[in-house]
Design brief:
Elements: E1 2-9, E2 12-19, H1 21-36, H2 51-81, E3 91-96, E4 103-110, E5 124-130, H3 134-147, E6 150-153, E7 165-173, E8 183-190, E9 212-218, E10 232-246, H4 252-257, H5 263-297, H6 304-323, H7 336-363, H8 370-382, H9 388-397, H10 399-421, E11 423-429, H11 431-446, H12 450-456, H13 474-477
Parallel strand pairs: 5-11
Antiparallel strand pairs: 1-2, 2-4, 3-4, 6-10, 7-8, 7-10, 9-10
Length: about 475
């Protein structure tokens, strides 16, 4: 094999590779000998057919296999011998090949950059500690009780109001045609629950027992049933009973039905859950600080191919959001080319951070164990009740899906490693104080370029509802993880 470097520009390299015809021929003959023992040819015992005959019958098909393997093996060998680490799959083009002649191909690659991580001991981080207010525990318990509410018949007859449960018979039609699933009897419907198609429940408010109501609605575009998608429908409804909702009483019996030993135990479990949610949000803030400081402290060339892939993924999501009517207010009124330039800067930041974290993990031998991946897999499976086994089988049979599970685990372990080395101070704040800080940061970020704002802007409601706290996903800022 002869390898010649024909271009060297930054992270890009171009090579010309020549594999002699003699070597190709030897590989073909060796492969035919491997197959000879399994091929039945009349007049010859297994493995005894002459190579010349095997070449006549199977040479062409074996040649394709040999050439593919020769290119794969020789390209890997060329990179290994030179100590080169490609950022993405090399681009290979066959220049020339004919039977009995040399194989010549071109290989274009982009390399991973040389990265010198900063001294993490110089990082200064602040971790907020959020004390769970008693009123939040009380509110959470009340929501739990409301989720277990029941209904009882009205003591005094009156028209149906929002929050009531009405027992109805209904029959629906689309353009006069009754379709499957559009009729029901003795159906219990809570008004205001948005269980039915938008606009349906509101038209039953004010109805009394025995009333017949005609409800006109339009099924939304993209509805699961194509025959109903975007279509107007008419439902004839009869009100058979009106029941008022009654929240479950907060007592030991309710707590035990939820798996707690009693009300005090349930209250403590709720407090612990809220504390965990706030702790998770606090960690996301620290992670955001780390990524921002790492981004500011490292400026190295990143592979253009990786940036292109990341940008394509971002832009695909932007176009999808636009199709769904969701447009980033920051993009309104801007030329597409300007918007693309901003998102490309975000893509470059993500790739740079991903490569940096990957290098930190490599240099410090940080790895994700099979047990950790399995735990993540089972947690993912539990999110799909009734389909756990299918989910597990899917991930185990798709390496790329397993990589998606492994990447955030790897990134978190690297972040933990950096936190252990950094200077971390702690500050106790209330949820209200934290919310004010988050809103102030969000306002400041809105006045900055998108690539800066995207890494700064937190979720405004994070401090009010820790369960829903989703500041800009710090992990998405480091697109790459251990797959970088």
């Amino acid at each position: 094999m002869q390898v010649t470097e024909v271009s060297n520009d930054g992270l890009k390299r171009d090579f010309k590779v020549v594999i002699e015809a003699k070597e190709i021929n030897e590989k073909v003959e060796n492969r035919l000998r491997e197959l000879a023992g399994r091929i039945k040819i009349p007049g010859f015992r297994p493995g005894k057919a002459p190579i010349k005959l095997l070449k006549q019958r199977y040479g062409q098909s074996v040649m394709g296999e040999v050439l593919e393997r020769a290119v794969t093996d020789s390209s890997a060998q060329a990179l290994n011998e030179r100590g080169l680490r490609p950022a993405i799959q090399p681009k290979i083009e066959i220049d020339s090949f004919e039977a009995g002649k040399d194989l010549e191909y071109s290989m274009a690659i982009e390399l991973l950059p040389e990265i010198q991580p900063m001294d993490f001991a110089t990082l200064e981080l602040e971790r907020v500690k959020i004390k769970v207010p008693e009123e939040e525990v009380t509110s959470a318990l009340e929501r739990l009780a409301a989720s277990r509410k029941e209904s009882k018949p009205l003591e005094t007859p009156r028209p149906a109001a929002s929050g009531d449960v009405v027992v109805i018979d209904f029959k629906g039609t689309v353009h006069g045609e009754a379709l499957p699933g559009m009729a029901g009897e003795d159906h219990h419907l809570e008004l205001g629950s948005n269980t039915f198609i938008g606009g349906f429940e509101e038209q039953l408010i004010g109805a009394s027992v025995g009333d017949a109501r005609t409800v006109n609605v339009t099924f939304p575009e993209g509805y699961g049933n194509e025959k109903l998608s975007g279509q107007p429908a008419v439902f004839e409804c009869t009100i058979k009973e009106i029941r008022e909702s009654v929240p479950a009483e907060l007592n030991d019996e309710l707590a035990k039905s939820m798996g707690a030993e009693g009300l005090d135990d349930l209250k403590e479990k709720v407090r612990e859950r809220l504390a965990q949610d706030y702790e998770g949000f606090s960690r996301m803030r620290v992670k955001r600080q780390i990524l921002d400081q790492l981004s500011d402290a490292h400026d190295f060339e990143v592979p253009e191919g990786m940036v292109n892939l990341e940008f394509d993924a971002i832009w695909h999501q932007v176009e999808h959001d636009r199709e769904q009517g969701r447009v980033d207010p920051d993009d309104a009124g801007k030329d597409d080319e300007d918007v693309k330039a901003e998102y490309r800067a975000i893509a470059e930041r993500r790739v740079r951070l991903g490569l940096l974290l990957s290098e930190v993990g490599r240099l410090n031998q940080i790895e994700v164990t099979p047990d950790e991946v399995n735990r993540a897999l089972f947690m993912e499976a539990q999110r799909h009740p009734g389909q756990e086994q299918q989910v597990i089988e899917y991930y185990r049979s798709h390496p790329e899906a397993q990589a998606q599970l492994r990447a955030p685990l790897f990134e978190d372990k690297v972040i933990d490693y950096i936190i252990d080395l950094a200077k971390v101070t702690e500050r106790e704040v209330s949820p209200d104080e934290l919310r004010e800080e988050e809103e102030k940061e969000a306002a400041e970020a809105a006045d900055k370029p998108k690539q800066t704002a995207a890494k700064k802007k937190p979720a405004k409601k994070a401090a009010a509802k820790p369960k829903q706290a989703k500041p800009d996903d710090a992990s998405s800022d480091a697109g790459g993880g251990d797959d970088a």
